[in-house]
Amino acid sequence: MSSASNENNNPYLLGVAGLCCVLIGIGICRFGYTPILPYLIEDHWLTKAQADFIGSANFIGYLIGALCSWNILKIANKLDIVKYSIISCIIGLMACSFNFGFFWILSWRLSVGFFGALLMIVTPSVILKKVAFSSKGLASGIIFSGVGIGILFSGIVTPWIHSLLDLQSVWLTFFCLSLIVGGIIAKILSTDLPNQKQAVVTETTQLKLSIKQKWQIFFIGFAYLTCGIGFVPHSLFWVEYAREKNLTTCLGSLIWSFFGLGFIIGGVCLGKMGDKFGIHKILMAIYFLSSLSVGIVLFNQSSYVFGGSAFLTGIFMAGILTLTSARIAEIVGTRAHTELWGKITLCYASSQAFGAYAMSHLINNSVGYATCILLASIAFIISTICMFFSNYSNP
Question: How far is CA 155 from CA 27, 95, 152, 256, in A?
Fold first, then answer.
C-alpha cells in the first residue's frame, strides 16, 4: 500500500486492533497471572513452589516464541500468525480454568507465553505498515496500551470474581473477555487489513542496513536491553518491597492497578508527544525520568510515593515500549521492522530473565531490595546514555 493510501487509514481504528491483540497476548495471558497466583495456592490448585515455577513458564514460553519468530515469519503470512496466535491464547485461557494438575497448567502457561511473544512481535509491524508516517507514534501508543488495560482489568476483577465465585470463574472471565476481544479483532482485520498473499520471503531474508543504521539500532537495542533490568523491581517484587515497608496487602493490590493505569495513559500520550516533538528526544527523556521514578522510593517509603512511583513507571514503561518500536520503524521502515523488533524483544526478554535471577539472588543473600532498586535506577541512566549516542547518525 502506498504512503498516499496510508494517509486515508484511521490510526485510531487500526491502533485498537493492535491494542486488542496485545491485550490478549500480554495484558491477560501474561500479566493476568500475577493477581491469580496467590489464589492458586490458597485454593490448593498448586503448592507455592509450583505456582512460582509456573510463573516463570510463561516467561520461558515468551523467550522461545521470540527466538522462533524469525523462522515462523519465513513460512507464514503475518496476518495468519496474528489470527492463529490469538486463537491459541484463547484456548490456553480456557484450558487453565480446569484444575488437572501442575503439568497441565504448566504446559498451557508455556503455550500462551509462546504465542503472546508472536503477537507482541508481529502485531506492531502489521498495524504500522498501514498507518501514515506522522501517526506511527500515536498508533504504537494505542497498540501497547493493551498491556496496561490487561494489568488494570486483572488487578481489579480477579479478587472481586474470586470473592463472589471461585478461581475457575476467574479463568473463565479472562477467557470470555479474550473471546469478545478476539471477535473485535476479526472484524477490524477483515475490513481494514485484508490478507495479502505476498511473498513472505521478500520481507524476512535480505536485511541490508547502512553503517549508520546499524549503529543506531545497536544503541537503541542496548538501551532497550538495559531497561529490561531497570523494570525488574516493578515487574517482580514491588508489592513485596511495599509490604516490607509496612504497607498493607490491599495497598499492594492498588499499587499494581496504578501501574496498569499508568501503562494505559503512557502509551497514547507519549506516542503523540513522540510524533510532535520527535521520537528520539522523547524516548531519551523517558529513560532519564524512569531512573527517577524507580529510585525515588530510596528516599521516601510512604504509600503515596510507592503509588506514584508505580503510576509513573507504568507510564514510562509504556512509552519506552511504544516509542522504541516506532523508532525502529522510523529508521529502517516497516518492511525490516518485524525482524529487528523480534531480535530486540528477545534481548529485552533475556535481560529481564537475567535481571530477575540476579536480583532474586541478591535478595536471598540478604543484600536487600534497596540495592536492587539502586541498580535498576542505574540501568536507566545507562539506557539514557545509549539513546544519546544513537542520535549521532540520525538519518
Answer: 11, 21, 5, 7
Rounded to whole angstroms, how far apart are CA atoms 234 and 338?
Answer: 28
Task: For domain 207-395, give the CATH superfamily.
Answer: MFS general substrate transporter like domains (1.20.1250.20)
Residue pLDDT, tens place only, 112-124? 989 998 888 888 7
DSSP 74: H
State residue 83 phi and psi, 5-degree precision. Answer: -60, -50
Say what the pTM is. 0.76
Residues 304 and 335: their CA atoms lie apart, in Å, by 45
Helix extents (H) in 165-248: 167-192, 201-204, 211-230, 232, 238-244
The span from the CA of 216 to the CA of 224, in Å, is: 12
**pLDDT of 15-48, one tens digit each?**
888 888 889 988 888 888 877 877 888 888 888 7
d(CA 230, CA 240): 17
Residues 131, 299: Cα–Cα separation, whole Å: 43
Reported as type and span, the H/E element at residue 227 is helix 211-230
CATH 1.20.1250.20 maps onto the chain at 1-203, 207-395
CATH 3.30.1330.10 for the 1-203 domain, yes or no: no
